[in-house]
Amino acid sequence: MNRLLVTLGTLLIVLGLAWSWLRRWPLFRLPGDIVIDRPGLRFFFPLTTMLLISAAISLIAWALRK
């Protein structure tokens, strides 16, 4: 459990430090991501992005279990 928490913490720190570089990727502007932009309201729901990230995490977890 301790090793998992240290690994997750390290990963979060690395992602936080690399955020300015990562947000330039077109990951959160994929077709299928829902954006409602009206005066006084901006709603963003990254549906396609969440599906891709979920699939990637599932593949990684499956590979680590083997």
Please describe what this structure looks like:
The protein has helices spanning 2-17, 19-22, 47-65; strands at 34-38, 41-45. By secondary structure, it is of the alpha+beta class. It has one domain (2-65). The protein has a two-stranded antiparallel sheet with strand order 1-2. The longest helix is centred in the C-terminal third of the chain and has 19 residues, at 47-65. It is extended.
Strand order of the largest sheet: 1-2
- The portion of residues assigned to helices is 55-70%
Instruction: Provide the number of structural domains.
Output: 1
Net shape: extended
Oligomeric description of these chains: single chain
Number of strands: 2
Helix/sheet category: alpha+beta
**Chain-averaged pLDDT:** 87
Beta-strand residue fraction: 15-25%
Order of helices and strands: HHEEH
In whole angstroms, the N-to-C terminal distance is: 19 Å
Largest sheet: 2 strands, antiparallel
Calculate Rg over CA atoms. Answer: 16 Å
